[in-house]
Amino acid sequence: MSSAPLPHSTADQPSTTGRSTYAPAAALNEARYWTPSTPPAAEWREHWHNVLPELAELASRKRKRPPDAVIMRASQLDAARLDTELSAMLKEQFMKIFSYFQPRLISAFQPELTLILELLIFRFSVWAGKPTPGSALMNLRYRDERHIHYTPRKLTGSSQGALQISSCQPNGLNPRSEVGGRTGVEGPGLSTWQRGLWGLGTVLMQYAWSRLDQVAAAQHWGDFDSSPGVQRAWKVLRSCETALNLASLLNFLVFLQQGKYRSLLERVLRARLVYQRANMARAISFEYLNRQLVWHELSELLLFVLPLISVTRLKRMIVNRWPSLRAATAKHLQRASGLESQISGADNETLPGPCAICAAHEITVPFCAVPCTHTFCYYCLRTNCEADHHFTCPTCSTRVHAMKRWHPADLASQT
Prior knowledge:
- By secondary structure, the protein is mainly alpha-helical.
- 50% of the residues lie in helices and 7% in strands.
- It has two domains: 73-153 and 161-275, no CATH class; 312-414, Herpes Virus-1, CATH 3.30.40.
- It contains 14 helices and seven strands.
- A three-stranded antiparallel beta sheet has the order 6-5-7. A two-stranded antiparallel sheet has the order 1-4. The chain has a two-stranded antiparallel ribbon with strand order 2-3.
- Strand 5 and strand 6 form a beta hairpin.
- The radius of gyration is 46 Å and the shape is elongated.
């Protein structure tokens, strides 16, 4: 059905002044049936050809790779430290199995035992497509960086083009590989040959190096009386060790700058540590670490302070502060000396003793303190005088100025 035209009012007619005006209803009717005009095909083709060189220039420019996810360096180093600590704990428990073997035999085959333990850890972690225990605790996993590459956009293709990820997902890993909504930690795990080379470098090479070093130390390769070939092998071994340490130092400096590849082997294999779950919060308890730090600092303080404290001087100050302790000590010494004389059957009043320090009744080398002339063992009196230059006699609290050899005539002065 066709719609009936709207009625026109008298205001819609041309005015006598020659001006043509439209009523609101007429303007609304005209806007209702108005459609935008399409430019001619020749015009937009000409415009497309004009901007095509500029688009080609933009597409040919070298595009920078989008910023990847930043993996905390502290997390990566903590994961390595946790792996080392775990290996040490397992090694300690593993060595208890051979506690009843001869120590010489265990020491000779210790590299092989360590190799067995490291192979077990490698078999059930990296070789199985899983992270190492320390990396798992820090929410980290290995990613194959060879499959992470940038593809520029094409003018004639899809507008999607950025950080692309290869579709190969070994070991059952299937992280998100879409370009949109990426977190930067997606990507395939290590391939089979990468995992094999990782085990070769971290397990077998370390075993070969430790065994070679042990053989070189046992056979004294570095001695001057060795053969020229052995000395040359020793120099090559030490040169390789120095070069490896220097390369590891340079790699560590690059790691601190870029945050990738904490070891030379990871850089060669292009095995990068990334987060397993990008949005996982760091739930790490530092209670054990804080307790260990407190006890460590207290032990360091005691090791520093205890040598500065004179136990003899401290004991003398306590005895002078509480004289009742001196009387109790003297009574205990007398009781001990009387009991010892009864057991030994010594009833000779000419014997020196007892020692005022150790309460020994039969003194082998008796000495007297000057000026109080009380009898002591030579060792007891000498050590106390050397430890405390203000040493006082435990019996009479007289300061000891010197010491002399005991004679039977000194019994009269003591009585």
